[in-house]
Each structure stands twice: as structure tokens, then as C-alpha cells.
């Protein structure tokens, strides 16, 4: 059975489908607007020493986090990232990633760290709100500022996900599944190439310009994969094509998860209200492209 973390495991392994990656900096249209909001928030501790990052991925935004949460002079902000789909990684003396589920935080608890800030970038809404609040309580050694930017149904990211999903549903239909099955058995790359060309033409003929961005990415990659066919390495070549289509299927699962998660932020906020947590900020962030997501700031005072 498909594990719900599998699409993310492949994402962080592939490196080819990165949300922000190395491009995550103040120039990034989301990072910029988020950094501005963070600079206007009054945190319990204005020079935090320890930060917990929920659903951190490979932590490509850690450098940026250290920039927006300046710590005491001469000290480096300690960052503990958790992600169910990333292997345990000690990056340096101040930076550790744990393979952990943020709805339980079992591994993270072993670190005995006293976190000042809990941060989540497009991650908290993927979990169950009630379990997440309970897990944070279990890990809290003192009051912690929690700051989550969450996907929303009307954001520019959700709009893009819907278009991408449309494209991939057309590309990866039943006929493609059959063509891949035949390729796996026959290793007949030419026949598969003819099939894919026909499929791409049929999508182009739909005359839907919004689908062309995803189409171009796929066509570029397929051109690489179909070119330089070495007939002596037909089997390896067929496997590379099959693997690429597997990656695309994982991408579809991530898009579906993202759109589902975008509807989930209300349940986390409802849980916090039910448990009488004080919500300090709950607002929609906008940038030049439109709605970016929902920013939530609350203080988690540990409860026994
Ligand atoms: C949309 S990605 C965001 C990653 C990163 N914060 C970023 O912005 O680039 C969501 C991440 O949350 C992780 N995730 C989702 N649900 C989780 C859970 N319950 N426990 C731990 N990690 C989870 C996924 O594995 C994935 O890496």
C-alpha cells in the first residue's frame, strides 16, 4: 500500500521538483512577504536560541530562517527540523533534522531541546490539528511562539496545483498506464515514443494555453530521455523512462495532498480556539501574484 510519505520521500530524493530550493532567499516572492511579516511580530523572546521547524524537507530555508530570526550576538540559532520523509541528518553542531512525524514528535522529544519558536512553512496543515497541538505540548519545555504559513484553497499555489493536476490527469490516463506496461515487457522504446508523441499532440490540440507550462517541462525531459537511444542498453533505457513516469505519478500525489491540505487550516485553528489558546495573528498574506497563504501565530503555553 502507498505510504502517505512516499511522494515526499521521492521529492526530497529526486531534487528535480523543488518548491524553493536554492532559490529560497529574500528575492523569493513568498520569502520576502513572510520575512516582512515576521519582522513586525512581537515574539516572547526577540533573540530566540532554538527553533523547531515542522515539515522542514531538506532544510533549504534554514539559512534564511537564521537571517529572519536573529539570535544573540555571537550565537547561532539552533535549528531542529522534523520531516517524516527525510532521513536523520546532522548538518552541523547547530542544525539537526529528525525523521519524525510532527503529530507525535517521538524522536524530537529525545533531543530535550527547549524551543523558543516553532515554525512551519506549508507543512502544519498536512497534519491532524488535534494531534499536532498535543505533540507540541509534549515537546514544550516552556512557552513557545508558533508561526505557521499554511496553504489556502484560493492561493496562487493552489490555483497552479489545480492546473498542473489537470495536465497530469490528461497525460497519465489509462492508455498511458497500458503503454507503460507494454514498455516494461517489450522494451520497445520506439513504440512508446510514438505513443507519447500522439498523447502530447492530443493535449496540444485541446488548445488550453494554461497547460503548456507543465507540458514544456515534461517535453524537455522526454526529449532528453528519448534522444541518444543506445540499442545495446534498451533495458536500462526503458527503465529510465518508466522511472520518470513514476516520478510524475508521485508529483500528482503531492499535488492532490497539497490541495487537500489547503482546506485543512480551519481545523487547526478551530482546535486552538477550542483549547483556549490565544491566537495573535491569523491573516492572509498577499504578494504581487495574489494570495500566498494563511499566517498563524499563537503562543503555546505548555499544559499538563
Ligand atoms: C509542502 S512540503 C513543505 C516543505 C518545506 N517546509 C518547504 O516549504 O519547502 C510539506 C512537508 O511536510 C512533510 N510532512 C507532511 N505531513 C507530515 C507529518 N505528519 N509529519 C512530518 N512531516 C510531514 C512532508 O514530508 C513534506 O516534506
From TrEMBL:
Under InterPro entries, the record lists:
SAM-dependent_MTases_sf
Its recorded name reads Methyltransferase domain-containing protein
Amino acid at each position: 500500500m502507498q505510504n502517505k510519505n512516499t511522494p515526499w520521500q521521492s521529492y526530497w530524493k529526486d531534487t528535480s521538483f523543488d518548491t524553493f530550493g536554492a532559490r529560497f532567499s529574500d528575492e523569493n516572492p513568498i520569502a520576502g512577504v513572510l520575512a516582512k511579516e515576521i519582522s513586525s511580530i512581537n515574539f516572547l523572546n526577540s533573540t530566540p536560541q532554538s527553533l523547531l521547524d515542522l515539515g522542514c524537507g531538506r532544510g533549504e530555508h534554514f539559512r534564511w530562517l537564521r537571517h529572519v530570526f536573529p539570535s544573540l550576538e555571537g550565537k547561532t540559532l539552533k535549528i531542529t527540523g522534523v520531516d517524516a520523509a527525510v532521513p536523520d541528518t546532522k548538518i552541523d553542531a547547530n542544525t539537526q533534522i529528525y525523521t519524525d512525524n510532527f503529530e507525535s514528535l517521538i524522536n524530537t522529544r529525545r533531543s530535550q531541546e527547549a524551543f523558543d519558536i516553532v515554525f512551519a512553512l506549508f507543512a502544519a496543515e498536512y497534519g491532524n490539528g488535534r494531534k499536532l497541538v498535543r505533540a507540541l505540548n509534549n515537546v514544550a519545555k516552556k512557552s513557545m511562539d508558533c508561526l505557521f504559513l499554511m496553504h489556502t484553497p484560493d492561493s496562487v499555489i493552489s490555483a497552479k496545483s489545480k492546473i498542473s493536476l489537470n495536465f497530469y490527469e490528461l497525460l497519465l490516463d489509462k492508455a498511458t498506464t497500458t503503454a507503460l506496461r507494454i514498455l516494461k515487457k517489450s522494451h520497445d522504446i520506439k513504440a512508446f515514443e510514438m505513443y507519447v508523441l500522439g498523447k502530447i499532440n492530443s493535449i496540444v490540440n485541446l488548445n488550453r494555453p494554461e497547460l503548456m507550462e507543465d507540458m514544456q517541462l515534461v517535453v524537455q525531459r522526454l526529449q532528453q530521455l528519448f534522444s541518444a537511444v543506445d540499442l545495446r542498453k534498451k533495458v536500462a533505457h526503458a527503465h529510465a523512462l518508466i522511472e520518470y513516469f513514476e516520478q510524475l505519478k508521485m508529483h500528482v500525489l503531492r499535488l492532490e495532498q497539497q490541495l487537500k491540505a489547503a482546506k485543512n487550516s480551519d481545523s487547526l485553528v478551530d482546535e486552538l480556539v477550542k483549547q483556549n489558546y490565544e491566537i495573535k495573528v491569523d491573516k492572509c498574506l498577499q504578494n504581487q501574484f495574489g494570495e500566498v497563504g494563511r499566517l498563524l501565530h499563537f503562543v503555546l503555553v505548555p499544559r499538563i
